[in-house]
Amino acid sequence: MRKTQENDIHHKLSFTIISFLKKINQFFQKKPKSVRYLIKIIVESEKKKVIDYNIRKMLEGVISISQKRVRDIMTPRSHIITLRNNQNLKECLETIVNYPYSRFPVINKNKDQIEGLLVVKDLLPFLTQNEIENFQVSAIMRKAMVTPESKIISVLLREFQIKKQNISIVIDEFGGVSGLVTMENILNSIVGYISDKYKNFSDNINIQKISESLYLVNALTQIDEFNKTFHSHLRSQEFETIGGLIMQSFGRLPSKGESIIIDSYKFKIVLADSRKIIQTEVRIPKSS
């Protein structure tokens, strides 16, 4: 339900942003001399208290998407969480439950062969015992939207709104997969990430609360973000992410199920592949 509500919000917000872009054009009787000139007017409007700081930042974000390209905001290929087209239902669910996503790219042999998207809600009919044996990823996956990494973000936003999509596979000039872009990537580019004081764990895709002392933490979570969340003091001179810090502490790539204690925090590997840690379970000390 929550993921469906988020999708609805994304569609409504994208429509609002597109409408707002049109109004910006109508605001000026003459075409602004340049983007810099337009931003100058917005800054002066804040100084005159016509708009507040938050509105100014959002306006600057809206203007910026007319200059940025998809490659500037996409999730890189190496960080895409995928499902394989030959996985059974249990194997798919093992990946899905560890990530708060509603859509997963489906691959064949490698990430340059994305065949479609699996929408999580499409699994519901197969959650009964009678239907498990009939499950096939290839039979229920949907066609994936494809976008070149050179496309201007404002153009992609309009395409998302017209096609009622919120995710697209990104390809390079040679047709290879270079990443993934979502409506959330675009919105973050416009309005920025929500301030920590307004953020709770259920809104944080990197850190998910399980109980008072147990959390799921994405291995790509920045060490600084982890420290800010838990008021901890973890440090690494070589790595910036929790996954990197854990690998440094092990002295190797750990396997699923292995645990290690770092500065009183117990990290257990819950998902990993042959190259990297993907998801960890963290038990925080009682004093945190």
CATH class assignment of the largest domain: Alpha Beta
The gross shape turns out to be globular
Q: Which spans have pLDDT < 50 for at least 5 consecutive residues?
A: 193-203
The number of helical runs is 9
Structural class: alpha+beta
Distance between the termini: 32 Å
The total strand number stands at 12
* Total number of distinct structural domains: 3
Task: State the share of residues found in helices, binned by percent.
Answer: 25-40%
The CATH architecture of the largest domain would be Roll
Order of helices and strands: HHHEEHEEHEHEEHEEHHEEE
Strand numbers in spatial order across the main sheet: 8-9-12-11-10
Rg over alpha carbons: 21 Å
Portion in strands:
15-25%
Under CATH, the homologous superfamily of the largest domain reads: CBS-domain
Sheet bearing the most strands, described? 5 strands, antiparallel
Domain CBS: 74-134
Family: Belongs to the UPF0053 family.
InterPro entries: CBS_dom, CBS_dom_sf, FAD-bd_PCMH-like_sf, FAD-bd_PCMH_sub2, Ion_transp-like_CBS, Transptr-assoc_dom
Function: Plays a role in the transport of magnesium and cobalt ions.
